[in-house]
Structure to design on (726 residues):
């Protein structure tokens, strides 16, 4: 079997994207939306990007069971057996553990990339080269590898990874993971050249991540170990087992539970034009601006005395605006949001307020 | 025949309400909208209000022919023969002339009130008493009577009428009509007690207004005089005559052509809680405010750090807004407008821009 046949991809696709409300909704989160107006959704673009590296039959989608039909509709190329449906939201550690046990049962020699479905990558050739380098590294080392993005600005919205000793090519030991810094610290990080954005994209072998889970979060490893022989290669048995077991797993991120604790953690520093599309402001920064410095997404806009705004509509609409500076104006599915970009961290609270006051359909 | 049977009402209903765009649209102007959320449109409320004073069979609606079906739908009580359909927009003088010739042909002893369809009147009992006083006056004097509203604020959006010698009850000779004043002058007007808002509501006999039109705008009078005997009592003949004649009339207001020139012009000063609903700001001023000083119309709104705004939606929508002060936020029929109240005089230009850039459906 050639090496490529042992390579797998796990696309994590269960988020609800509430920071892009009302454009992204609980019933149609942002990974399922043609966010950049390219004709492909973020999930589809993630799938397209990985096909050059990993065989189609080795690409798995992990999502919440409520999104099963969206995944099937958007990725008809993916076999049902490769869609892992979580019966509950338990953050990334149980999600990745399940995928690792599932893949290991199919192929004990498997290596895997784990990637969120909703990131944007602009330089796909560089992405491909970086991922190949990462696969080669984890296949020849007992290593947990995370991708660190070369920072282009003193971003305060991301965690950072400080690199330690250079091992090989673009790969170094991780010295520290940091929380989101304040602006002063972010400037220091940027100037140092030692700090990289934590992308949430990982590579490892199934064997290495299973070993790390056993050491770092033994409860989760034990839960997946408890499956009877043959469970992970029998779809009906696996579904029944997961329905019983998965909801009992603790909800914890892979970063917190494993990456910040294991001692074989490495970072590959990359610069393939990345955005996690985490916020409206990130989307604004990433998008082409018109002559007044506004961004418009899927809508016609006539703007007077307006700059620094992002206008986003799902559905056909003309927006006529006067006198707005640095606002988010988003209209979709019965909700209009008008909010200064500087207060976008309040959007989650707004969603909660809307749901409490006017019902779940506004979630 | 008792006096009431000679009283007629002409409701002018042909405006396009562009100052309330996008809520009011060329294909659905504001008089046809349930603007105040009462369950009745402004036209229906105008009709309801006059029924106590004038027999149903004497209430005429003058509108543009494109709005015929809207009028019939909203006022099924009105006989088709009482709906006068203008083949072209020619301002108020030709409209009123036609109605006067039409009514005079039915009833040479007729008196009439002429009123726009899109005003709001809050104290209907006082309105009724005022109109009865006005009818009694014009039926006993050779008089053109306009209603002057006691001003409650130094409004710069209205024309004013200065009263001269008191004649009888609330009725005085008109001393002058004024253009819209600046704020300084409006304050002087308000303090003087001599100046009243020009309401655009008129009373006169058919005989008196026809005489005045002959003197002040003889071309228009001659046009309507040119109808063959029996035209105005034969609907088919009248329609054919109007189709030929009306578009050739000069487009001019009754204020400019007659009221400011005739020498038998009187004003009845009234205070029945009036608004011409001329602008979003007027609607804001008239409407009840919530605790933050915002007005919401037909929509659910969650507002943070917002005050002095008017939110208006046609259709179901939740608006979530942060950090807006003194804005108009109006969403209807594929258009969202966000505009400071202080720049609402630009809305007409915005409609023109929208139409030029994106097509007539946005008009």
């Amino acid at each position: 079997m050639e090496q490529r046949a042992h390579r797998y991809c796990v696309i994590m696709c269960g988020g609800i994207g509430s920071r892009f409300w009302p454009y992204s909704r609980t019933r149609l989160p942002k990974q399922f939306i043609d966010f950049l107006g390219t004709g492909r959704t973020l999930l589809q673009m993630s799938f397209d990007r990985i096909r050059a590296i990993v065989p189609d039959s080795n690409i798995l989608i992990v999502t919440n069971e409520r999104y099963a039909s969206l995944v099937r509709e958007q990725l008809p190329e993916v076999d049902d057996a490769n869609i892992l449906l979580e019966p509950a939201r338990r953050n990334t550690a149980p999600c990745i553990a399940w995928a690792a046990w599932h893949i290991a049962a199919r192929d004990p020699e498997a290596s895997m990339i784990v990637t969120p479905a909703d990131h944007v990558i602009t330089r796909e050739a560089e992405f491909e080269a970086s991922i190949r380098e990462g696969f080669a590294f984890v296949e020849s080392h007992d290593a947990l590898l995370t991708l660190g993005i070369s920072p282009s600005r003193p971003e305060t919205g991301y965690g950072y990874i400080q690199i330690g000793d250079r091992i090989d090519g673009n790969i170094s030991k991780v010295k520290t993971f940091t929380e989101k810094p304040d602006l002063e610290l972010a400037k220091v990080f940027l100037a140092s050249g030692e700090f990289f954005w934590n992308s949430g994209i990982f590579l490892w072998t199934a064997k290495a991540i299973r070993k790390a889970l056993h050491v770092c979060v033994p409860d989760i490893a034990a839960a997946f170990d408890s499956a009877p022989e043959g469970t992970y290669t029998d779809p009906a048995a696996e579904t029944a087992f997961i329905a019983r077991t998965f909801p009992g797993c603790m909800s914890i991120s892979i970063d917190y539970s494993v990456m910040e604790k294991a001692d074989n953690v490495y970072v590959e520093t990359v610069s393939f034009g990345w955005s996690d599309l985490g916020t409206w402001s990130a989307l604004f920064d990433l998008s082409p601006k018109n002559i007044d410095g506004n961004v418009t997404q899927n809508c016609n806009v006539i703007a007077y005395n307006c700059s620094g705004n992002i206008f986003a509509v799902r559905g056909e609409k003309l927006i006529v605006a006067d006198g707005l500076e640095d606002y988010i104006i988003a209209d979709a599915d019965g909700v209009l949001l008008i909010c200064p970009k500087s207060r976008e961290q309040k959007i989650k609270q707004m969603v909660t307020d809307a749901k409490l006051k006017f019902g779940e359909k506004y979630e």
Observations:
- DSSP finds eleven helices and 17 strands in chain B.
- The longest helix of chain B spans residues 124-140.
